[in-house]
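tool_call: predict_structure(chain=1)
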Amino acid sequence: MPMSEIRDYEPSTWGWVADQVAEFEASGGERANTLLDTGIAIIVMTTVGHKTGKLRKVPLMRVEHDGEYALIASKAGMPHNPAWYRNLLADSRVAIQDGPEPRDYTVREVTGDERDEWYARGVAVYPDYADYEVSAAEHGRTIPVFVATPVR
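tool_result:
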């Protein structure tokens, strides 16, 4: 079933995330399309909750290359992965909105050199990812990276 056919959406409990997603979607990506006041572009990723089965939406840094996107589970270098990480492990379907309309994608976690290449693309977009990687390593965590490929 395409993501667009799932109707049960549960907004984030983090107010700023729910507000940004709502404004981004309502404006077709024209407003609330950067990370706070940084000017760095974001996308909105929609997953299916691994416990609830409800749609979950989160703004992520826009790291795009040749039509694919990196989904970097940094959580600012904290000791644990973000909640959406488990959603991607449970269901490889996502929708990504980068502009007026969301599109369906499939994701795969990348490792080794491929992971490092995508992570470097992320650092080029958002330099703080370099610090997050150091912080995560201090907690014994390697930041997971997924690549989202459009469903054709």
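agent: Residues 3-150 form a domain with the Pnp Oxidase; Chain A fold (CATH 2.30.110.10). Proceeding to next step.
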